[in-house]
Fold these 4 entries.
Entry 1:
Amino acid sequence: MKEEIKEILLRKYTERELARMRYVYTCLLYEGSKFLLMYVIFSLFQMDREYLMAIAVLLSIRNFSGGIHLSTYVGCFLFTFFFLLGALCASRTIVPPPPVQNTVLLLGAFILFCVGPVTSDNRPKLTGRQERIYKSISCAVTFLYFLLFLCEKTFTYRNLMFWVIVFQILQLIAAKICKKGDHHEKNSTKCTRVPL
């Protein structure tokens, strides 16, 4: 049955197109299930709104700056869970004054431009143009957060947004340090996934 389905699909799509579809389907399944599972966990602790805000801020930067990538579903889930839990806990316990937050965000935009993006080993190396675009976008998004923080001294989730950005910058620096000598820099291995 599986072979018959594949044969039917191959009449309409190439192997490469099928591989891309499998990759997209798998990504959506894994990311969607992690998102829902974490939502349930954080909801149990009445942190569901904070979780959603943290995810929104994280995705607005991480999609362009990259960061630490783990190869297993469980590893990725645990890393993301503890990353978000750390940001949520820090936001509830450590409240730097607005001038400190503003300074850190401005410095963070500069760091993101210098350090990012850090892509997964399972993806092809970015071209120079793509890298410049991603750097610029992640830096610009962080700079927009800086402007928001500069214009508004107090607003809901300000401290949470601050800590998510700080954690993202720290893990990006850690990812860049760990990436030294990887296959992208050596160009010695082929990418294991089909580029989108």
Note: The mean pLDDT is 83.
Entry 2:
Amino acid sequence: MSIVNMLLILISLIVLPTLAGAGLGRLLRVRNTISGSFILGYLLTWTTVQILGVPVTLMKGSFRLIAWTVVAVLTLAAVFFLIGSVVSKPSREEYIVSGTVKRLKKYFADRYTAAFFILLMVFTAYVFYKIIRYYHLDADDTRYVVNAVDILRTDKILQTDPTSGTPLSLVYGDFYKDVVSSWSVFLAYTGFVTGMSPAASAHSVMHVILYLLILSVYWRLSSRLFADPDPGKARKNRMIFMYFVQLIILFGFYSVQSTETFILSRLWQGKAVAAGFGVPLIVFAFMLLYEDGRKWSYWIILLMTAMSMCHMSAMGIVMSAVMIASFGLYTAVAKKSIRILILSMICCIPSGVYFMISQMTDYMKYLQN
């Protein structure tokens, strides 16, 4: 990995999505934090890839059309944030970097809290080491990573069977689920913007970035779980919560199919991201909606999360629909609001549409045979 590749990784996979997420947050009028902006930036990325990925795949279009569109969307959102920051002149607390630094200083105001925070960072670094050092390669890489390499090489999506190298027919054989869950397109995008092979970016970069996203979701979740009138107590409780989250991840190898195992061993795969990132984000979104179901920005975030989970995995299509329908029904009954129920069902529409497309391509395979 060259210095140029490292700079491209920093700019295209960290800085640009964070600034774009901050721009989206400003548009939605939600509080801008580094963790929240990082999450919104990748939701915007995945939603854009998913919206374009299915029609481009079915029409046998160019992958680079998707890649350049994603870059353009993120750049526009980032520019919107930067211009808005200059024009509106927000307070110091509202700036992403200075606001975050100001909040971090509060963790070092007390010696006990400061020591606890440093230990948390050390423990987090250890978990990162475990993920980087002991990631697992298996047959699924012939699906996700080989597809991504082929997409970047040929500029076409799902035109080659990754197991044999033979051309795929119109109905995509046994890969009909990949038509609607285009995670390989995103992995190809990471190779496109970093100048690396998608195999290298998936195995050396993305599982680190994706784990940062998972930690960001749980950090945002802790802000709702441990809200307390005493700010010092709230900070300590949030740090303890993050300790336990990572302990569960570190010692959660009770099954080869557990979420913790997927996070530690093969996080670059879409189904691992759906379980480790998408599920807690839907829970967090409904916690926000339970507090204020009238705020449109929360519904937009939930809809983007649903789209992103459809993008990650065919399993994510079903999981997002079930979770949103269940939580939506509960929230609607608890708040006595038919509006919440209707909007929850609208957020399930992407899952229904992509499920129908996948079943239609599967049905066409049997007609052809």
Note: The mean pLDDT is 85.
Entry 3:
Amino acid sequence: MNVYVATGIIGLISSFVAALADVPLVNPKEKYDQIPGKHPVKWWRDVTDKRFELSFWLSFLGQPGTYLVMWMLAVLISKNSPGLGLALKINTFIGCYTGLLCHVVYCMKPLLYRRLYKKLDDKEVEEAFSALDKVSQVPMTIGFVTLWLVTTIIVVSAIINGSLEVPKICLLINPVTSTAFLLILKKCNVRIIGALGVGFMMFSILLIIAGFRI
């Protein structure tokens, strides 16, 4: 077992933990729905702070391993395509910088709402959330685009041009494919875990496959 395979295994576990971090952010009495965004939701009143604290810690513990996988993929790609490898390293750095911030905002909003709804009316709570969004919206957008879309484009490009030496069938192992599969499960009323974390699991599998071929 080389360092790439070992990192991929660590990343697979870390990505699963990160995917579980999304579960506490949705209504436990409903089928897995979209994580609440800008607006407060009333079910936050009916649960405890521990739900959102757990979500933060799962994300905190899971994310580092996922970024390590992206970095090691960049190292492998750099051997054949220094430009693509550098692009993935830069993208990984930006993702590291913004990724946890995105999840902190998701956890912070319900914690704030649980303390504000008894003291303020709905309009005032919405104004407080809007003020928070003005600060967090840009880095959250950057985080999502870099971690989900740009990484996928770079890795897929590396597979197509041979910079990442894995079988071409591995083009299907990416966050776009896994998200489509999760959406199908969701339409079938199956409770799912976080799509971004599952996407990171795909990159971990790619790294393991690439590591075995060295």
Note: The chain has a mean pLDDT of 88.
Entry 4:
Amino acid sequence: MIKRAVFLALLAGALIFWVQRRQPRDLALEIDLTSVLPGEIAEIDVVVRRDGHALARHDVRYGASGAPGLLELNVKAAPGPVEVETTLVYSGKPARRVISQTELAEDRPSRITPQAGR
């Protein structure tokens, strides 16, 4: 009887731990655009995917001042590897799509630097 209770308690504890690990959280993703000239990017479209499924999408248009040097986004997802598709829309130039891989983590923001082509 005691062995069965201990087994069930361990099983319940492991299940609670597993559910907590899989639960989506607000995780930080930073996109470093400091290599781009100020005012050069008029719009940025970011799609965050895991295993082919979209987790988040952010499409932001900027005025004449252009995009900031560091774009900070919140992604509601479980920690782990993701694919980040960034489309940079330039003022008067063709748009450029960049796909990056990163790891979302709870303890630190994940940072990507899309190589902005001229």
Note: The first helix runs from residue 2 to 22.
